[in-house]
Design a protein that fits this description.
Elements (H helix, E strand, L loop, with lengths): L4 E2 L2 H4 L26 H12 L7 E4 L6 H13 L7 E5 L9 E5 L3 H24 L2 H31 L2 E6 L2 E8 L2 E2 L2 H5 L3 H58 L4 H16 L1 H5 L12 H7 L11 E4 L9 E4 L4 H5 L1 E2 L2 E3 L2 E3 L5 E2 L2 H5 L3 E5 H6 L3 H11 L1 E2 L4 H4 L13 E2 L3 E6 L1 H10 L3 H4 L2 E4 L3 E3 L2 H17 L7 H15 L4 E3 L2 H17 L7 H15 L1 H12 L9 E2 L2 E10 L2 E14 L4 E4 H4 L5 H18 L8 E6 L12 H13 L3 E2 L2 E3 L2 E2 L5 E2 L4 H15 L6 E5 L10 H8 L4 E5 L2 H9 L17 H22 L22 H7 L1
Parallel strand pairs: 2-17, 2-18, 9-14, 14-17, 22-27, 24-25, 27-30, 30-31
Antiparallel strand pairs: 1-31, 3-4, 3-8, 5-6, 6-7, 10-13, 11-12, 15-16, 19-20, 21-26, 22-23, 23-25, 28-29
Helix pairs in contact: 2-3, 4-7, 5-7, 7-8, 19-21, 20-21, 25-28, 25-29
């Protein structure tokens, strides 16, 4: 017989010893928020935050609940506190091109002060200009210029009029302006009077009128030139007066912002523009709209105050005392990332200006850190490409989703880009990281640092103490009842159960924190002042009860016989396999009957579920491994020929994973050897071509599922489960199962090979081959070898009885065993 090992109760569950803890309850502890066991990830975040080289942005990978987001934020906050505060950024009017606003950089905290100073200056300027242009001194100078022009023009017109009168003409007005007409006694001659004149007199008057009209035209042209010169002199006077009035105001601002070159340049250009357009600014109270328009239309046509273009739009401001910024963008749309330009509706069109430019997350995080959920970023149209563009080009250019889908004519802007110096931290699961790394050539260049958060850590003394400190921290932070030592130990045991390993602890701290809150709740319901171990156990039981309705239905069907499972007796070619059903965060272990039938033929091993397309690729791989095992063990000296069908009975959903491959092999060997399998023993485990049983997942839940089935149908003391030896360390069974093993009502065996397992299942030795490859006839392997030879001989005799060449199909060479797993229709098509 091969070596077998029945597990002891101490092997089935790790117990956290109370001797590790000297405290009575968590009130005596300070508590530490975590993280637990994430030294590698924390070091990667620190490295990514500190290194200044290009492309060293960070991608934080890990499963939700491991503290990846909170730990990242904490580490970045610690780093950001010692970093220099980034500058403020403002947008101002561009006097060269209004559609390309200029970006101004100011020291941290100075942006708001500059905006307020400009607003006060504009208010003061309105009053100063009003006072200056309403003063007597200004009006006297302006009137003198106008009076000089009018006197010169009037004198010239009076002299001309005197000349015209002496020549018998008078000045008159027509729609075209002043004209010269013949006169009689100072009155313009009527057409009748003009017609009574002789031809010679009319010719003389016409010639003289043309001469005088020419002189009048010259006088009018000189008057227009003089009027233009007069307006220019008035404009120069206005500019001189305005310069004298506003220069002291600008001088104060220039002194205050003398260290900011961009501000000084803007002030100079602003002062020059203000003085050049002083006439327009003086008429700011006139809206320029025609009278009598409806109020709704006037609102749409209302003109902006000309002085508003001298205001300042503060895009980003930073507190000089807060260090570098850390921005978390929960909704990373294109507008939220790069900023946006708002618009107003006027007369059916959308218009805008520099004051409607809004900052994005990249602007706010400039000089610091930007944290984004990777999945949320990838789901937003154009956002991922915009982020990569900004990181590659090292500046933020405002982009809008409306620019990509613009159906309405709008007045848009092209603001000057803002230089970018930011560390982007993406947070996502490993699948997204590897997907981007594989399919996006820019990803590896821009995100060179991976901070990988683990889901479990080694269970050593240091890890236990960290767990204790975390439990104390959550209890105090959330106002929970203090936890006794026994409750703390029970929580830590659950940490090992969630990790699925006696030598590990889960670091999905969100799950642990939820368990602490629920345990405190049930302790309060029981009127206790401290949380005991029984409260933690009750909380876990209640969590299972809230989630296991489907499980209850399944086991009710097993009890009623609707789902057929035998847990007593022995049957050849029939075995109980174990599977896992995942429903949300709840895992159900349930048994399922596997049957096998073998008979004479050449079709090979047919898995009925596979033919019905109810299996996944991993299961198919495990199934095909059986052919390799049989070929290696029984086909070294002779060709194997057989027909076999395997099926998981009452399977109505897809079967995935290779954990049933050893189950299928046990069932196949039992059918070939005609060796009954004990129905009270269920099996799980993967198998390789050498017959070694390999570890599988969910081993504890599978065992618990079969134990519950045996309990429902009746415990006999002979029932149990066979598991791979490499899965023993993963056992964290419920106490009820451990107690049943201790009482001898249930058994758990661990095996390394299929031979060990088949001996437990059948009670018959597996048998070893001699030098010629022959197995003892009274063993499982010997009986299988004998059956395979019987099938081969039967097929050979049948072939000899056929007429030569008459049976075309029989003339075909027998397929190797590796091909015999193909379905029959595949074989026919290939032929």
């Amino acid at each position: 017989m091969a070596r077998t090992r029945e597990l002891k109760p101490r092997d089935l569950r790790w117990r956290c010893p109370l001797t590790h803890f000297e405290f009575q309850d968590t009130n005596a502890l300070e508590g530490v928020p975590g993280p637990i066991g994430q030294d590698r990830a924390v070091a990667a975040i620190e490295f990514g935050a500190d290194i200044a080289s290009e492309g060293y942005n960070v991608f934080v990978t890990g499963i939700s609940g491991t503290g990846r987001t909170s730990t990242t934020r904490t580490e970045l906050e610690r780093r950001a506190a010692s970093m220099p505060v980034p500058d403020d950024w403002c947008y101002v009017y561009n006097f060269d091109d209004a559609h390309q606003p200029r970006a101004l950089r100011l020291p941290a905290g100075m942006g708001l002060a500059f905006r307020d100073d400009m607003a006060r200056m504009l208010n003061d300027m309105r009053q100063v200009l009003a006072n200056v242009f309403e003063s007597d001194e200004y009006n006297d100078k302006r009137d003198a210029i106008i009076k000089e022009f009018r006197q010169e023009r009037n004198a010239e017109l009076q002299a001309f009029e005197q000349e015209a009168q002496e020549a018998g003409f008078a000045l008159g007005r027509s729609p075209a302006g002043l004209i010269v007409a013949p006169a009689v006694e100072g009155e313009v001659m009527t057409p009748q009077q003009y017609g009574e004149l002789s031809d010679e007199e009319r010719q003389r008057l016409d010639a003289k009128r043309e001469e005088l009209q020419g002189k009048l035209g010259e006088i009018m042209r000189r008057g227009q030139r003089d009027e233009k010169e007069t307006r220019e002199r008035v404009r120069q006077l206005d500019q001189e007066v305005a310069h004298e009035a506003v220069d002291p105001v600008f001088k104060d601002l220039r002194e205050k912002y003398s260290a900011v070159a961009g501000v000084l340049e803007h002030l100079e250009r602003m002062e020059r523009d203000l003085i050049e357009n002083i006439g327009m600014l003086r008429r700011e109270d006139d809206d320029g709209l025609p009278p009598g328009l409806p109020p709704q239309l006037m609102m749409g046509m209302q003109q902006k105050n000309p002085l508003e273009r001298y205001e300042v739009n503060v895009l980003v401001t930073n507190d000089p005392e807060n260090g570098a910024p850390i921005i978390e963008e929960a909704n990373p749309t294109l507008d939220k990332l790069t900023g946006e330009i708002e618009h107003q509706a006027q007369m059916g069109a959308l218009v805008t200006d520099f004051s409607m430019i809004k900052a994005g997350a990249l602007h706010h995080a400039n000089g610091g850190f930007l944290i984004i959920e990777a999945l949320q970023l990838l789901l937003r149209p154009f956002a991922w490409e915009a982020l990569k563009r900004a990181l590659r080009n090292k500046h933020v250019r405002i982009e809008s989703l409306s620019d990509q889908y613009r159906f309405v004519s709008t007045v848009t802007l092209e603001p000057e880009p803002v230089p970018l110096d930011v560390k982007v931290v993406l947070i996502g699961n490993p699948f997204i990281y590897y997907l981007l790394y594989e399919h996006d050539e820019d990803f590896g260049k821009l995100f060179k640092v991976q901070a990988d958060f683990s889901t479990e850590i080694d269970r050593d003394d240091d890890a236990l103490q960290q767990y204790v400190q975390f439990i104390a921290h959550v209890a105090k932070r959330d106002g929970l009842l203090p936890f006794e030592r026994s409750a703390v130990a029970r929580v830590i045991e659950q940490g090992a159960e969630l990790a699925g390993d006696q030598q590990k602890l889960t670091v999905r701290l969100l799950d642990i924190a939820d368990m602490l809150r629920e345990s405190s709740y049930w302790a309060q319901k029981s009127k206790r002042k401290k949380v005991k171990a029984q409260d933690v156990t009750h909380a876990l039981e209640q969590r299972i009860w809230r989630a296991n309705r489907i499980e209850e239905l399944i086991f009710d069907m097993i009890h009623e016989g609707a789902i057929m499972v035998n847990v007593d007796g022995a049957v050849a070619g029939q075995i109980n396999g174990l599977s896992i059903m995942q429903l949300g965060d709840y895992m159900i272990g349930r048994p399922g009957r596997l049957t096998c039938r073998t008979f004479t033929g050449r079709t090979g091993i047919i898995q009925i579920d596979r033919e019905a397309k109810l299996t996944g690729r991993l299961h198919d791989k495990g199934m095909l491994t059986l052919a390799g095992f049989l070929g290696d063990r029984f086909g070294r000296t002779e060709q194997i020929q057989l027909s076999a069908t395997l099926s998981f009975e009452q399977l109505y959903s897809e079967l995935e994973g290779d954990s049933a491959s050893s189950t299928e092999l046990y069932c196949l060997l039992s059918s070939l050897a005609d060796a009954p399998i004990k129905q009270g023993i269920a099996v799980t485990g993967s198998v390789n071509q050498m017959g070694e049983v390999q570890a599988i997942g969910g081993v504890s839940r599978k065992i618990e599922g079969f134990y519950r089935t045996c309990k429902i149908l009746g415990l006999t003391g002979e029932q149990g489960v066979i598991i791979p030896e490499s899965n023993v360390r993963h056992l964290m069974l419920q106490q009820e199962v451990v107690d049943a093993v201790k009482a001898g009502q249930f058994h758990i065996w661990s095996v390394r090979t299929v031979d060990e397992g088949i001996e437990i299942l059948t009670g018959i030795p597996a048998g070893r081959a001699d030098k010629e490859g022959e197995f003892p006839p009274d063993t499982i392997n010997g009986r299988v070898q004998s059956r395979l030879r019987q099938i081969a001989n039967a097929l050979h005799d049948e072939h000899r009885r056929d007429d030569d060449g008459d049976d075309e199909e029989d003339d075909q060479p027998t397929k190797p065993l590796s091909d015999q797993g193909q379905p029959p229709h595949e074989e026919t098509r290939r032929r």
